Amino acid sequence: MGGPRFRLATLIAYGIVSLWSLLVIIPTLWMVLGAFKTRREFFLDPLGLPSTFGPEAFERALGAGIGTFLLNSAIVTVLSVILIVVVSGMAAYVLARTDSRWMRFVYLLIVAGFAVPVQAVLIPLFQLVSGAGMLNSLFGIVLPYAAYGIPFTIILFYAFFLDFPKELEEAALLDGCRPVKTFFHVVLPLTGPAIASAAIFQAVFIWNEFILALLMLTRPDLKTLTVGILQLGGEFTADWAAIMAGLSIAILPLLLIFVLAQKYFVRSLAGLGK
Amino acid sequence: MRAAATTSAGGVVAASDQGGQGGQARPASGLGSTLFLLLPAVGLCTVFILLPALLAIVGSFFEIGLGSTDWRFAGLTNYARAMDDPVFWIALRNNLFIVIGSVILQVGFGTVLAAILDRGIPKGGTVFRTIIFAPMVMSTIAVALIWLVILDPNVGALNTLVKSMGLPTPKLGWLGDPSISLGILLLIAMWQYTGFMMVLILAGLQGIPKELYEAATLDGARGLTAFRHITLPGIRNVLIVAVLITTIGGFKVFDLIFATTRGGPANATQVMGTYIYQQAFNLGNLGYANAMSVVLLIIAVILGALQLRVSRRA
Prior knowledge:
The structure holds two protein chains of two kinds. Chain A is mainly α. Chain A is 76% helix and 0% strand. Chain A contains 14 helices and no strands. Chain A is globular, with a radius of gyration of 24 Å. Chain B is mainly alpha-helical. Chain B has two domains: 31-76, no CATH class; 79-313, Orthogonal Bundle (MetI-like fold). Chain B has 13 helices and two strands, in the order H-E-E-H-H-H-H-H-H-H-H-H-H-H-H. Chain B has helices at residues 31-59, 77-84, 86-120, 125-133, 140-150, 157-164, 181-205, 210-218, 223-234, 236-252, 255-260, 272-282, 286-313; strands at residues 62-64, 71-73. Chain B has a two-stranded antiparallel sheet. The longest helix of chain B has 35 residues, at 86-120.
Protein backbone atom coordinates (compact mmCIF):
# COMPACT_ATOMS: atom_id res chain seq x y z
CA MET A 1 0.00 0.00 0.00
CA GLY A 2 2.88 2.50 -0.16
CA GLY A 3 2.61 6.23 -0.21
CA PRO A 4 2.77 8.85 2.55
CA ARG A 5 0.50 8.40 5.51
CA PHE A 6 -1.02 11.81 5.18
CA ARG A 7 -1.81 12.63 1.61
CA LEU A 8 -2.24 16.23 0.71
CA ALA A 9 -5.83 15.65 -0.31
CA THR A 10 -6.68 14.25 3.11
CA LEU A 11 -5.08 17.25 4.80
CA ILE A 12 -7.09 19.61 2.68
CA ALA A 13 -10.21 17.60 3.44
CA TYR A 14 -9.58 17.87 7.16
CA GLY A 15 -8.85 21.53 6.69
CA ILE A 16 -12.15 22.26 5.04
CA VAL A 17 -14.35 20.46 7.55
CA SER A 18 -12.35 21.83 10.45
CA LEU A 19 -12.67 25.37 9.19
CA TRP A 20 -16.40 25.07 8.74
CA SER A 21 -16.75 23.41 12.14
CA LEU A 22 -14.88 26.30 13.70
CA LEU A 23 -17.14 28.68 11.85
CA VAL A 24 -20.07 26.95 13.53
CA ILE A 25 -18.55 26.72 16.99
CA ILE A 26 -17.01 30.16 17.36
CA PRO A 27 -20.13 32.34 17.00
CA THR A 28 -22.04 30.01 19.31
CA LEU A 29 -19.25 30.06 21.85
CA TRP A 30 -18.93 33.82 21.57
CA MET A 31 -22.60 34.13 22.34
CA VAL A 32 -22.47 31.88 25.39
CA LEU A 33 -19.41 33.67 26.71
CA GLY A 34 -21.16 36.94 26.08
CA ALA A 35 -23.71 36.04 28.69
CA PHE A 36 -21.01 36.52 31.30
CA LYS A 37 -19.64 39.83 30.12
CA THR A 38 -20.29 43.24 31.54
CA ARG A 39 -21.43 46.10 29.34
CA ARG A 40 -18.01 47.67 29.44
CA GLU A 41 -16.42 44.49 28.28
CA PHE A 42 -18.79 44.41 25.34
CA PHE A 43 -17.86 47.85 24.16
CA LEU A 44 -14.20 47.80 24.93
CA ASP A 45 -13.26 44.33 23.85
CA PRO A 46 -15.89 42.54 21.80
CA LEU A 47 -13.60 39.69 20.94
CA GLY A 48 -12.30 39.15 24.42
CA LEU A 49 -13.19 36.72 27.12
CA PRO A 50 -15.30 37.71 30.10
CA SER A 51 -13.37 38.36 33.28
CA THR A 52 -15.88 36.86 35.63
CA PHE A 53 -18.42 34.12 35.21
CA GLY A 54 -21.36 35.32 37.25
CA PRO A 55 -24.94 34.25 36.71
CA GLU A 56 -26.44 37.75 36.80
CA ALA A 57 -27.32 37.89 33.15
CA PHE A 58 -29.06 34.55 33.39
CA GLU A 59 -31.04 35.79 36.35
CA ARG A 60 -32.13 38.83 34.41
CA ALA A 61 -33.18 36.66 31.49
CA LEU A 62 -35.09 34.33 33.75
CA GLY A 63 -36.65 37.31 35.40
CA ALA A 64 -37.94 38.44 32.06
CA GLY A 65 -39.83 35.20 31.74
CA ILE A 66 -37.52 32.79 29.95
CA GLY A 67 -38.42 30.08 32.42
CA THR A 68 -42.10 30.41 31.65
CA PHE A 69 -41.45 30.49 27.93
CA LEU A 70 -39.41 27.33 28.25
CA LEU A 71 -42.23 25.58 30.04
CA ASN A 72 -44.77 26.67 27.46
CA SER A 73 -42.64 25.41 24.63
CA ALA A 74 -42.14 22.12 26.41
CA ILE A 75 -45.85 21.61 27.03
CA VAL A 76 -46.86 22.49 23.50
CA THR A 77 -44.12 20.39 21.93
CA VAL A 78 -44.75 17.28 24.00
CA LEU A 79 -48.51 17.38 23.50
CA SER A 80 -48.22 18.02 19.79
CA VAL A 81 -45.68 15.29 19.19
CA ILE A 82 -47.71 12.72 21.07
CA LEU A 83 -50.79 13.64 19.10
CA ILE A 84 -48.92 13.56 15.80
CA VAL A 85 -47.29 10.21 16.40
CA VAL A 86 -50.42 8.43 17.59
CA VAL A 87 -52.76 9.86 14.97
CA SER A 88 -50.29 9.43 12.11
CA GLY A 89 -49.47 5.92 13.19
CA MET A 90 -53.11 4.95 13.17
CA ALA A 91 -53.76 6.45 9.78
CA ALA A 92 -50.57 5.21 8.13
CA TYR A 93 -51.34 1.71 9.38
CA VAL A 94 -54.69 1.64 7.66
CA LEU A 95 -53.35 3.28 4.53
CA ALA A 96 -50.51 0.80 4.24
CA ARG A 97 -52.59 -2.26 4.97
CA THR A 98 -55.63 -1.47 2.86
CA ASP A 99 -55.59 -1.49 -0.87
CA SER A 100 -58.42 0.43 -2.43
CA ARG A 101 -59.09 3.48 -4.53
CA TRP A 102 -60.41 5.37 -1.51
CA MET A 103 -57.24 4.73 0.41
CA ARG A 104 -55.05 5.82 -2.42
CA PHE A 105 -57.10 8.99 -2.72
CA VAL A 106 -56.81 9.71 0.98
CA TYR A 107 -53.07 9.14 0.84
CA LEU A 108 -52.81 11.55 -2.07
CA LEU A 109 -54.72 14.16 -0.07
CA ILE A 110 -52.42 13.73 2.87
CA VAL A 111 -49.41 14.05 0.64
CA ALA A 112 -50.90 17.19 -0.91
CA GLY A 113 -51.24 18.54 2.61
CA PHE A 114 -47.52 18.10 3.04
CA ALA A 115 -46.84 20.59 0.30
CA VAL A 116 -48.88 23.37 1.91
CA PRO A 117 -46.74 25.66 4.03
CA VAL A 118 -48.25 27.50 6.96
CA GLN A 119 -47.26 30.88 5.49
CA ALA A 120 -49.39 30.39 2.42
CA VAL A 121 -52.57 29.91 4.44
CA LEU A 122 -51.69 32.03 7.43
CA ILE A 123 -54.55 34.47 7.16
CA PRO A 124 -57.50 32.10 6.83
CA LEU A 125 -55.89 29.80 9.38
CA PHE A 126 -55.65 32.67 11.79
CA GLN A 127 -59.23 33.72 11.15
CA LEU A 128 -60.30 30.12 11.69
CA VAL A 129 -58.55 29.63 14.99
CA SER A 130 -59.44 33.01 16.33
CA GLY A 131 -63.06 32.52 15.36
CA ALA A 132 -63.04 29.17 17.09
CA GLY A 133 -61.70 30.74 20.24
CA MET A 134 -58.45 28.83 20.12
CA LEU A 135 -56.24 31.83 20.57
CA ASN A 136 -54.11 32.14 23.67
CA SER A 137 -54.53 28.56 24.63
CA LEU A 138 -51.67 26.10 24.84
CA PHE A 139 -54.07 23.31 23.99
CA GLY A 140 -55.46 25.37 21.16
CA ILE A 141 -52.18 25.68 19.34
CA VAL A 142 -51.47 21.97 19.63
CA LEU A 143 -54.18 21.16 17.08
CA PRO A 144 -52.82 23.13 14.11
CA TYR A 145 -49.29 22.08 15.04
CA ALA A 146 -50.44 18.48 14.89
CA ALA A 147 -52.23 19.02 11.61
CA TYR A 148 -49.09 20.37 9.95
CA GLY A 149 -46.90 17.61 11.32
CA ILE A 150 -49.17 14.75 10.33
CA PRO A 151 -48.55 14.54 6.56
CA PHE A 152 -44.80 14.13 6.83
CA THR A 153 -45.17 11.64 9.67
CA ILE A 154 -47.76 9.61 7.78
CA ILE A 155 -45.44 9.45 4.81
CA LEU A 156 -42.68 8.22 7.10
CA PHE A 157 -44.84 5.62 8.84
CA TYR A 158 -46.48 4.52 5.62
CA ALA A 159 -43.15 3.53 4.15
CA PHE A 160 -42.29 1.83 7.41
CA PHE A 161 -45.50 -0.17 7.57
CA LEU A 162 -45.20 -1.27 3.98
CA ASP A 163 -42.03 -3.05 5.01
CA PHE A 164 -43.42 -4.31 8.29
CA PRO A 165 -43.87 -8.10 8.37
CA LYS A 166 -47.51 -9.03 8.36
CA GLU A 167 -47.16 -12.40 10.07
CA LEU A 168 -47.35 -10.83 13.51
CA GLU A 169 -50.62 -9.12 12.76
CA GLU A 170 -52.06 -12.19 11.12
CA ALA A 171 -51.18 -14.22 14.16
CA ALA A 172 -52.93 -11.73 16.38
CA LEU A 173 -55.99 -11.69 14.16
CA LEU A 174 -56.09 -15.46 14.24
CA ASP A 175 -56.17 -15.21 17.98
CA GLY A 176 -59.28 -13.13 17.71
CA CYS A 177 -57.83 -9.66 18.16
CA ARG A 178 -59.83 -6.93 16.50
CA PRO A 179 -57.74 -4.76 14.19
CA VAL A 180 -57.71 -1.71 16.42
CA LYS A 181 -56.47 -3.79 19.29
CA THR A 182 -53.94 -5.47 17.03
CA PHE A 183 -52.64 -2.07 16.09
CA PHE A 184 -52.19 -0.81 19.60
CA HIS A 185 -50.90 -3.96 21.20
CA VAL A 186 -48.90 -5.65 18.49
CA VAL A 187 -47.82 -3.17 15.85
CA LEU A 188 -47.30 0.03 17.78
CA PRO A 189 -44.82 -1.29 20.33
CA LEU A 190 -42.60 -2.54 17.55
CA THR A 191 -42.42 0.68 15.58
CA GLY A 192 -40.05 2.19 18.12
CA PRO A 193 -37.31 3.43 15.82
CA ALA A 194 -39.73 4.96 13.34
CA ILE A 195 -41.56 6.68 16.16
CA ALA A 196 -38.31 8.00 17.59
CA SER A 197 -37.22 9.46 14.28
CA ALA A 198 -40.59 11.01 13.54
CA ALA A 199 -40.99 12.33 17.07
CA ILE A 200 -37.61 14.00 17.13
CA PHE A 201 -38.06 15.60 13.75
CA GLN A 202 -41.43 17.05 14.72
CA ALA A 203 -40.24 18.06 18.16
CA VAL A 204 -37.44 20.18 16.76
CA PHE A 205 -39.74 21.75 14.22
CA ILE A 206 -42.48 22.59 16.72
CA TRP A 207 -40.13 23.77 19.46
CA ASN A 208 -38.54 26.21 17.04
CA GLU A 209 -41.75 27.23 15.32
CA PHE A 210 -42.28 30.92 15.25
CA ILE A 211 -45.02 32.44 13.21
CA LEU A 212 -48.02 30.47 14.40
CA ALA A 213 -46.86 30.86 17.98
CA LEU A 214 -46.40 34.57 17.39
CA LEU A 215 -49.95 34.96 16.17
CA MET A 216 -51.77 32.57 18.46
CA LEU A 217 -50.03 32.96 21.81
CA THR A 218 -49.88 36.65 22.53
CA ARG A 219 -50.48 36.67 26.24
CA PRO A 220 -47.16 37.27 28.00
CA ASP A 221 -47.37 34.21 30.19
CA LEU A 222 -48.25 31.92 27.31
CA LYS A 223 -45.53 32.78 24.84
CA THR A 224 -43.25 30.07 23.60
CA LEU A 225 -39.49 30.24 23.83
CA THR A 226 -38.92 31.17 20.22
CA VAL A 227 -41.31 34.09 20.38
CA GLY A 228 -40.08 35.01 23.84
CA ILE A 229 -36.44 35.41 22.91
CA LEU A 230 -37.33 37.78 20.11
CA GLN A 231 -39.30 39.80 22.57
CA LEU A 232 -36.34 39.66 24.92
CA GLY A 233 -34.14 41.02 22.20
CA GLY A 234 -36.49 43.95 21.89
CA GLU A 235 -36.84 44.58 25.61
CA PHE A 236 -33.20 44.38 26.51
CA THR A 237 -31.86 46.35 23.61
CA ALA A 238 -28.69 47.36 25.38
CA ASP A 239 -28.42 44.54 27.85
CA TRP A 240 -26.41 42.31 25.58
CA ALA A 241 -25.45 39.88 28.28
CA ALA A 242 -29.05 39.18 29.19
CA ILE A 243 -29.97 38.66 25.56
CA MET A 244 -27.13 36.22 25.17
CA ALA A 245 -28.04 34.47 28.38
CA GLY A 246 -31.57 34.10 27.11
CA LEU A 247 -30.38 32.79 23.77
CA SER A 248 -28.07 30.33 25.48
CA ILE A 249 -30.95 28.99 27.53
CA ALA A 250 -33.07 28.83 24.41
CA ILE A 251 -30.73 26.73 22.32
CA LEU A 252 -29.44 24.48 25.06
CA PRO A 253 -32.27 21.92 25.45
CA LEU A 254 -32.43 20.91 21.82
CA LEU A 255 -28.67 20.94 21.43
CA LEU A 256 -28.34 18.54 24.32
CA ILE A 257 -31.03 16.24 23.00
CA PHE A 258 -29.45 16.38 19.58
CA VAL A 259 -26.02 15.39 20.79
CA LEU A 260 -27.46 12.53 22.80
CA ALA A 261 -29.92 11.24 20.21
CA GLN A 262 -28.12 11.97 16.97
CA LYS A 263 -28.78 8.80 15.17
CA TYR A 264 -32.54 9.35 15.26
CA PHE A 265 -32.10 12.74 13.69
CA VAL A 266 -29.93 11.38 10.98
CA ARG A 267 -32.27 8.51 10.34
CA SER A 268 -35.33 10.66 9.93
CA LEU A 269 -33.44 12.94 7.58
CA ALA A 270 -32.24 10.04 5.53
CA GLY A 271 -35.89 9.21 5.12
CA LEU A 272 -36.45 12.54 3.40
CA GLY A 273 -34.18 11.65 0.58
CA LYS A 274 -35.83 8.31 0.07
CA MET B 1 -56.62 -21.48 5.75
CA ARG B 2 -58.55 -18.48 6.81
CA ALA B 3 -61.20 -16.66 4.90
CA ALA B 4 -62.49 -13.37 6.13
CA ALA B 5 -65.77 -11.74 5.38
CA THR B 6 -65.79 -8.87 2.96
CA THR B 7 -67.21 -5.53 3.84
CA SER B 8 -68.20 -2.91 1.37
CA ALA B 9 -67.70 0.82 0.98
CA GLY B 10 -65.07 1.35 3.69
CA GLY B 11 -62.64 -0.03 1.20
CA VAL B 12 -61.54 -2.78 3.47
CA VAL B 13 -61.07 -5.66 1.18
CA ALA B 14 -60.73 -9.12 2.54
CA ALA B 15 -58.49 -11.83 1.29
CA SER B 16 -58.29 -15.45 2.02
CA ASP B 17 -54.93 -16.83 2.85
CA GLN B 18 -53.29 -17.84 -0.39
CA GLY B 19 -49.81 -18.81 0.57
CA GLY B 20 -48.78 -15.28 1.46
CA GLN B 21 -48.67 -13.88 -2.03
CA GLY B 22 -50.40 -10.78 -3.30
CA GLY B 23 -53.20 -10.04 -0.89
CA GLN B 24 -52.88 -8.28 2.37
CA ALA B 25 -54.26 -9.50 5.66
CA ARG B 26 -57.69 -8.09 6.14
CA PRO B 27 -59.40 -7.28 9.39
CA ALA B 28 -62.84 -8.67 9.45
CA SER B 29 -64.60 -5.79 11.10
CA GLY B 30 -64.16 -3.23 8.42
CA LEU B 31 -65.62 0.16 8.29
CA GLY B 32 -65.78 1.05 11.95
CA SER B 33 -62.20 0.45 12.85
CA THR B 34 -60.92 1.83 9.57
CA LEU B 35 -62.70 5.08 10.13
CA PHE B 36 -61.63 5.21 13.73
CA LEU B 37 -58.01 4.87 12.76
CA LEU B 38 -58.14 7.24 9.82
CA LEU B 39 -60.47 9.96 10.97
CA PRO B 40 -58.35 11.91 13.43
CA ALA B 41 -55.56 12.42 10.92
CA VAL B 42 -57.85 13.20 8.02
CA GLY B 43 -59.99 15.40 10.22
CA LEU B 44 -57.11 17.49 11.54
CA CYS B 45 -55.55 17.91 8.14
CA THR B 46 -58.83 18.84 6.53
CA VAL B 47 -59.68 21.44 9.12
CA PHE B 48 -56.30 23.08 9.46
CA ILE B 49 -54.68 22.57 6.09
CA LEU B 50 -57.25 21.96 3.40
CA LEU B 51 -59.88 24.33 4.67
CA PRO B 52 -57.56 27.33 5.10
CA ALA B 53 -56.12 26.65 1.65
CA LEU B 54 -59.59 26.77 0.14
CA LEU B 55 -60.47 29.84 2.16
CA ALA B 56 -57.32 31.56 0.99
CA ILE B 57 -58.23 30.92 -2.61
CA VAL B 58 -61.80 32.07 -2.15
CA GLY B 59 -60.78 35.02 -0.02
CA SER B 60 -58.38 36.24 -2.64
CA PHE B 61 -61.31 37.21 -4.80
CA PHE B 62 -62.78 39.44 -2.14
CA GLU B 63 -61.90 42.62 -0.43
CA ILE B 64 -62.10 41.93 3.24
CA GLY B 65 -62.82 44.76 5.57
CA LEU B 66 -61.76 45.16 9.13
CA GLY B 67 -64.66 43.24 10.53
CA SER B 68 -63.93 39.83 9.16
CA THR B 69 -67.49 39.23 8.12
CA ASP B 70 -67.29 42.16 5.79
CA TRP B 71 -66.48 40.52 2.48
CA ARG B 72 -67.05 42.37 -0.75
CA PHE B 73 -66.59 40.54 -4.01
CA ALA B 74 -63.70 42.01 -5.92
CA GLY B 75 -63.00 39.57 -8.70
CA LEU B 76 -59.44 39.69 -9.84
CA THR B 77 -58.70 43.10 -8.32
CA ASN B 78 -56.30 41.74 -5.78
CA TYR B 79 -54.34 39.88 -8.39
CA ALA B 80 -54.24 42.91 -10.65
CA ARG B 81 -52.98 44.90 -7.72
CA ALA B 82 -50.19 42.41 -7.21
CA MET B 83 -49.17 42.69 -10.83
CA ASP B 84 -48.88 46.45 -10.51
CA ASP B 85 -47.24 46.44 -7.13
CA PRO B 86 -43.48 46.90 -7.41
CA VAL B 87 -42.95 45.58 -3.90
CA PHE B 88 -44.65 42.32 -4.82
CA TRP B 89 -42.18 41.83 -7.64
CA ILE B 90 -39.27 42.87 -5.46
CA ALA B 91 -40.35 40.28 -2.92
CA LEU B 92 -40.63 37.59 -5.54
CA ARG B 93 -37.28 38.52 -6.95
CA ASN B 94 -35.73 38.41 -3.49
CA ASN B 95 -37.20 34.98 -2.94
CA LEU B 96 -35.64 33.81 -6.19
CA PHE B 97 -32.32 35.32 -5.16
CA ILE B 98 -32.49 33.43 -1.90
CA VAL B 99 -33.49 30.22 -3.64
CA ILE B 100 -30.70 30.29 -6.18
CA GLY B 101 -28.16 31.48 -3.65
CA SER B 102 -29.19 28.85 -1.14
CA VAL B 103 -29.01 26.06 -3.66
CA ILE B 104 -25.52 27.06 -4.72
CA LEU B 105 -24.25 27.66 -1.21
CA GLN B 106 -26.07 25.06 0.85
CA VAL B 107 -26.42 22.20 -1.57
CA GLY B 108 -23.13 22.95 -3.26
CA PHE B 109 -21.03 23.25 -0.17
CA GLY B 110 -23.11 20.64 1.61
CA THR B 111 -22.15 18.18 -1.10
CA VAL B 112 -18.49 19.05 -0.69
CA LEU B 113 -18.73 18.50 3.06
CA ALA B 114 -20.67 15.28 2.60
CA ALA B 115 -18.14 13.96 0.14
CA ILE B 116 -15.35 14.75 2.57
CA LEU B 117 -17.11 13.05 5.45
CA ASP B 118 -17.93 10.05 3.34
CA ARG B 119 -14.59 9.18 1.83
CA GLY B 120 -12.27 12.09 2.35
CA ILE B 121 -11.29 11.68 5.97
CA PRO B 122 -10.50 8.41 7.70
CA LYS B 123 -11.57 9.38 11.20
CA GLY B 124 -13.71 11.85 13.06
CA GLY B 125 -16.61 11.92 10.65
CA THR B 126 -19.26 11.69 13.32
CA VAL B 127 -17.82 14.52 15.36
CA PHE B 128 -17.69 16.85 12.40
CA ARG B 129 -21.16 15.81 11.34
CA THR B 130 -22.53 16.60 14.78
CA ILE B 131 -20.91 19.99 14.93
CA ILE B 132 -21.84 21.09 11.44
CA PHE B 133 -25.43 19.94 11.76
CA ALA B 134 -25.96 21.51 15.19
CA PRO B 135 -27.22 24.92 14.00
CA MET B 136 -30.20 23.10 12.49
CA VAL B 137 -31.63 22.42 15.93
CA MET B 138 -31.45 26.05 16.93
CA SER B 139 -34.52 28.06 16.10
CA THR B 140 -34.02 30.37 13.16
CA ILE B 141 -34.98 33.21 15.49
CA ALA B 142 -32.12 32.28 17.83
CA VAL B 143 -29.71 32.05 14.91
CA ALA B 144 -30.90 35.40 13.63
CA LEU B 145 -30.42 37.05 17.02
CA ILE B 146 -26.97 35.56 17.50
CA TRP B 147 -25.87 36.97 14.19
CA LEU B 148 -27.65 40.24 14.82
CA VAL B 149 -25.36 40.77 17.77
CA ILE B 150 -22.28 39.56 15.93
CA LEU B 151 -23.04 41.96 13.10
CA ASP B 152 -23.74 44.85 15.43
CA PRO B 153 -21.59 47.84 14.52
CA ASN B 154 -20.69 48.63 18.12
CA VAL B 155 -20.40 45.46 20.12
CA GLY B 156 -20.31 42.94 17.35
CA ALA B 157 -17.39 40.60 16.89
CA LEU B 158 -17.36 40.87 13.13
CA ASN B 159 -16.62 44.56 12.90
CA THR B 160 -13.82 44.23 15.42
CA LEU B 161 -12.36 41.37 13.46
CA VAL B 162 -12.61 43.13 10.12
CA LYS B 163 -11.14 46.35 11.47
CA SER B 164 -8.26 44.52 13.07
CA MET B 165 -7.40 43.20 9.64
CA GLY B 166 -7.33 46.73 8.34
CA LEU B 167 -10.38 46.32 6.14
CA PRO B 168 -13.27 48.76 5.99
CA THR B 169 -16.64 47.93 7.46
CA PRO B 170 -19.90 48.89 5.75
CA LYS B 171 -20.93 52.37 6.80
CA LEU B 172 -24.60 51.56 7.07
CA GLY B 173 -23.97 48.33 8.88
CA TRP B 174 -23.96 44.82 7.52
CA LEU B 175 -27.73 44.58 7.56
CA GLY B 176 -28.49 48.24 7.09
CA ASP B 177 -26.87 48.52 3.70
CA PRO B 178 -29.45 47.66 1.03
CA SER B 179 -26.86 46.40 -1.41
CA ILE B 180 -25.48 43.70 0.86
CA SER B 181 -28.20 42.99 3.42
CA LEU B 182 -29.87 40.21 1.47
CA GLY B 183 -26.51 38.63 0.77
CA ILE B 184 -25.63 38.71 4.43
CA LEU B 185 -28.93 37.03 5.26
CA LEU B 186 -28.15 34.40 2.65
CA LEU B 187 -24.87 33.70 4.41
CA ILE B 188 -26.60 33.40 7.77
CA ALA B 189 -29.02 30.92 6.24
CA MET B 190 -26.07 29.02 4.85
CA TRP B 191 -24.54 28.89 8.34
CA GLN B 192 -27.67 27.30 9.67
CA TYR B 193 -28.77 24.97 6.89
CA THR B 194 -25.65 23.65 5.19
CA GLY B 195 -25.39 20.91 7.79
CA PHE B 196 -28.86 19.75 6.87
CA MET B 197 -27.92 19.36 3.22
CA MET B 198 -24.68 17.71 4.24
CA VAL B 199 -26.44 15.03 6.26
CA LEU B 200 -29.04 14.47 3.57
CA ILE B 201 -26.46 14.01 0.84
CA LEU B 202 -24.21 11.99 3.10
CA ALA B 203 -27.02 9.49 3.55
CA GLY B 204 -27.24 9.23 -0.21
CA LEU B 205 -23.48 8.83 -0.57
CA GLN B 206 -23.43 6.06 1.96
CA GLY B 207 -25.89 4.17 -0.18
CA ILE B 208 -23.41 3.81 -3.01
CA PRO B 209 -21.80 0.38 -2.85
CA LYS B 210 -18.11 0.43 -2.13
CA GLU B 211 -17.46 -2.19 -4.77
CA LEU B 212 -18.16 0.34 -7.48
CA TYR B 213 -15.29 2.48 -6.26
CA GLU B 214 -13.00 -0.52 -5.91
CA ALA B 215 -13.76 -1.65 -9.43
CA ALA B 216 -13.11 1.85 -10.72
CA THR B 217 -9.77 2.01 -8.92
CA LEU B 218 -8.77 -1.24 -10.58
CA ASP B 219 -9.58 0.39 -13.90
CA GLY B 220 -7.40 3.33 -12.96
CA ALA B 221 -10.20 5.81 -12.29
CA ARG B 222 -9.93 7.51 -8.90
CA GLY B 223 -10.59 10.82 -7.24
CA LEU B 224 -12.40 13.30 -9.41
CA THR B 225 -13.07 10.86 -12.23
CA ALA B 226 -14.70 8.46 -9.84
CA PHE B 227 -16.65 11.36 -8.43
CA ARG B 228 -18.01 12.29 -11.82
CA HIS B 229 -18.89 8.83 -12.99
CA ILE B 230 -19.87 6.94 -9.87
CA THR B 231 -20.71 9.38 -7.11
CA LEU B 232 -22.72 12.00 -8.93
CA PRO B 233 -25.01 9.58 -10.77
CA GLY B 234 -25.46 7.61 -7.57
CA ILE B 235 -26.77 10.57 -5.64
CA ARG B 236 -28.67 12.13 -8.49
CA ASN B 237 -32.05 11.68 -6.85
CA VAL B 238 -30.90 12.78 -3.44
CA LEU B 239 -29.39 15.88 -5.01
CA ILE B 240 -32.64 16.68 -6.74
CA VAL B 241 -34.55 16.27 -3.51
CA ALA B 242 -32.00 18.44 -1.73
CA VAL B 243 -32.39 21.14 -4.36
CA LEU B 244 -36.16 20.96 -4.11
CA ILE B 245 -36.17 21.13 -0.32
CA THR B 246 -33.87 24.15 -0.44
CA THR B 247 -36.03 25.77 -3.09
CA ILE B 248 -39.20 25.28 -1.09
CA GLY B 249 -37.40 26.62 1.96
CA GLY B 250 -36.28 29.64 -0.01
CA PHE B 251 -39.86 30.55 -0.78
CA LYS B 252 -41.02 29.97 2.76
CA VAL B 253 -38.36 32.08 4.41
CA PHE B 254 -39.85 34.28 7.09
CA ASP B 255 -38.35 33.89 10.54
CA LEU B 256 -34.85 35.00 9.59
CA ILE B 257 -36.02 38.20 7.97
CA PHE B 258 -38.66 38.98 10.55
CA ALA B 259 -36.08 38.75 13.34
CA THR B 260 -33.50 40.91 11.62
CA THR B 261 -34.57 43.41 9.02
CA ARG B 262 -38.33 42.91 8.70
CA GLY B 263 -38.01 43.47 4.98
CA GLY B 264 -35.96 46.61 5.14
CA PRO B 265 -34.00 48.63 4.49
CA ALA B 266 -36.32 49.96 1.82
CA ASN B 267 -37.63 46.54 0.89
CA ALA B 268 -34.16 45.27 0.15
CA THR B 269 -34.90 42.12 2.12
CA GLN B 270 -38.63 41.93 1.59
CA VAL B 271 -39.86 38.47 0.68
CA MET B 272 -43.27 36.97 -0.02
CA GLY B 273 -43.71 35.71 3.53
CA THR B 274 -42.90 39.00 5.20
CA TYR B 275 -44.82 41.06 2.67
CA ILE B 276 -47.94 38.94 3.12
CA TYR B 277 -47.59 39.31 6.87
CA GLN B 278 -47.16 43.05 6.55
CA GLN B 279 -50.17 43.46 4.29
CA ALA B 280 -52.37 41.29 6.44
CA PHE B 281 -51.40 42.06 10.00
CA ASN B 282 -49.92 45.53 9.80
CA LEU B 283 -52.04 47.05 7.06
CA GLY B 284 -55.21 45.01 7.21
CA ASN B 285 -55.39 44.29 3.48
CA LEU B 286 -56.63 40.76 3.93
CA GLY B 287 -57.91 40.18 0.42
CA TYR B 288 -54.65 41.34 -1.09
CA ALA B 289 -52.64 39.24 1.32
CA ASN B 290 -54.77 36.26 0.40
CA ALA B 291 -54.06 36.75 -3.28
CA MET B 292 -50.34 36.77 -2.67
CA SER B 293 -50.74 33.77 -0.40
CA VAL B 294 -52.39 31.91 -3.25
CA VAL B 295 -49.41 32.64 -5.47
CA LEU B 296 -47.14 31.28 -2.75
CA LEU B 297 -49.43 28.29 -2.32
CA ILE B 298 -49.32 27.40 -6.00
CA ILE B 299 -45.54 27.63 -6.06
CA ALA B 300 -45.25 25.52 -2.91
CA VAL B 301 -47.64 22.82 -4.09
CA ILE B 302 -45.92 22.44 -7.45
CA LEU B 303 -42.51 22.17 -5.81
CA GLY B 304 -43.83 19.83 -3.14
CA ALA B 305 -45.36 17.54 -5.72
CA LEU B 306 -42.07 17.48 -7.61
CA GLN B 307 -40.19 16.65 -4.44
CA LEU B 308 -42.39 13.72 -3.60
CA ARG B 309 -42.31 12.34 -7.10
CA VAL B 310 -38.53 12.44 -7.16
CA SER B 311 -38.04 10.99 -3.72
CA ARG B 312 -40.32 8.08 -4.56
CA ARG B 313 -38.01 7.27 -7.38
CA ALA B 314 -34.94 7.36 -5.18
